[in-house]
């Protein structure tokens, strides 16, 4: 089965910290020597990353932007890197919302969170797909790799909108994989548990979470093993237990229903 080892040029969105940064460096170190494009908002961190390897390139982007800006970013990236055949969507933000105190809920934060974690990723997938379908027609594999969360399946109410945005992306991943099953476009979903990162720093609870989270190095090792194998879902730690308990046979069920409906509609 094709895996990330077969990619020639990998774009990592949200690569300036945490999971995105760790995966970008790990992919760069693969024996297959892919080009890795690290993308994010903070130029100084991109510049620091570029010093880590000769095949690391940079692209500054904030995906919480307009549709035209996103389309322009994709066009510019493909013009510079026509061999691009994999995108990892690691950008994400997380906010706390207390629905017992609705007056405290900042709807601008809600909008930023849903846009960054889902809406912009949906749009970017649409914009990158022509390139990947073209590669498929040429017999080459490509990879769409969204990062969701174990919370996409069992939510943590304190971060309700984060969980909802990841649940939307998780559902989209299943549908994408089903629709693209007859192509060489591979949809690989990474489902992390609570992982060491900067995601929670602004919430003021990092010291407490640090007692429970999975170290970033351990997560990266496990994630890379799944990416190299080309597992459709790379669920790690407690997220793997959640998937096993609540998601058994879900992909197969969706594929079967899709095939049944397709057969009915095509016969009319």
From TrEMBL:
- Key words of the record: Oxidoreductase
Reading the lineage from the top rank, the first entry is Eukaryota
Keyword field contains Metal-binding = no
Its Gene Ontology molecular function terms? oxidoreductase activity
What the entry lists under InterPro entries is as follows: NAD(P)-bd_dom_sf, SDR_fam
Task: Give the family, as the similarity comment puts it.
Answer: Belongs to the short-chain dehydrogenases/reductases (SDR) family.
The molecule here is called Uncharacterized protein
Q: Which organism is it from?
A: Trametes cubensis
């Amino acid at each position: 089965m094709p895996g990330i080892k077969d990619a020639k040029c990998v774009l990592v969105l949200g690569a300036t910290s945490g999971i995105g940064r760790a995966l970008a460096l790990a992919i760069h170190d693969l024996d297959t020597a892919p080009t890795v494009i690290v993308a994010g908002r903070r130029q100084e961190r991109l510049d620091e990353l570029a010093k880590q390897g000769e095949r690391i390139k940079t692209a500054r982007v904030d995906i919480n932007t307009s549709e035209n800006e996103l389309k322009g970013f994709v066009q510019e990236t493909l013009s510079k890197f026509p061999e691009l055949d994999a995108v990892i969507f690691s950008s994400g933000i997380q906010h706390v919302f207390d629905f017992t105190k609705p007056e405290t809920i900042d709807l601008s934060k809600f909008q930023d969170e849903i846009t960054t974690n889902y809406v912009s990723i949906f749009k970017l997938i649409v914009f990158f797909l022509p390139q990947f379908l073209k590669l498929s027609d040429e017999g080459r594999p490509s990879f769409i790799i969204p990062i969701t969360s174990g919370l996409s399946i069992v939510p943590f109410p304190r971060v309700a909108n984060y969980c909802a945005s990841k649940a939307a992306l998780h559902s989209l991943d299943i549908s994408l994989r089903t629709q693209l099953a007859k192509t060489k476009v591979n949809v690989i979903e990474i489902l992390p548990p609570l992982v060491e990162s900067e995601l929670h720093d602004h919430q003021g609870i990092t010291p407490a979470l640090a007692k429970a989270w999975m170290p970033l190095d351990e997560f990266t090792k496990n994630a890379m093993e799944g990416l190299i194998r080309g597992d459709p879902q790379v669920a790690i730690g407690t997220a793997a237990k959640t998937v096993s308990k609540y998601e058994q046979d879900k992909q197969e069920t969706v594929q079967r229903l899709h095939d049944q409906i397709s057969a009915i509609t095509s016969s009319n």
